[in-house]
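Session log. Operator J.P. requested a structure for one protein chain; no other inputs attached. Running the standard single-chain path with token output.
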Amino acid sequence: MNALNKPVVLVIDPDPLTLTAIAAMLDSAQFKVYCARDKVAAIKGATHLALDLIICDESVDDADGEEVISDLRAIPNRDDVPILYMSHRQLPDIISRNTQAGVAYHIKKPLEPARLMDAIDRALFELPLINSQIKNKLKKPHFPTAASDLPMSSFTIPHIASQF
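Structure written below.
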């Protein structure tokens, strides 16, 4: 987050009314909000701004949201910025493809303010915490690597009993 501890959010949607509504809601919740109505502006914003979150609609300008997300994920040093995907469609294949492309959450349109704010809170606070815990676990060996690494006390290996 920036120096003022205001999360910086890029909202990508071709509809000016949707952009205005989301920007007003986030501004009142003390977010710094940038808006983009097309793919070129979205890529420019994501490249030059220190973002904490991206909210992307399923259709942007002459591209679909999936293409925009793919292009956003290709920007160097932006792979850790969570992306929320807004869509009228919540089909399993769309959700699966977008999750594989790096979308953190899907938000069903029409937007419900409480649901949107809940997804934003999860993306900004829960997701980074989970990711840092996973990274920390991966850095530590799960088992001692050498006899000298073993604690002086004895230990047992947990096992599943074969008797029922």
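Operator note: The two ends are 53 Å apart (CA to CA).
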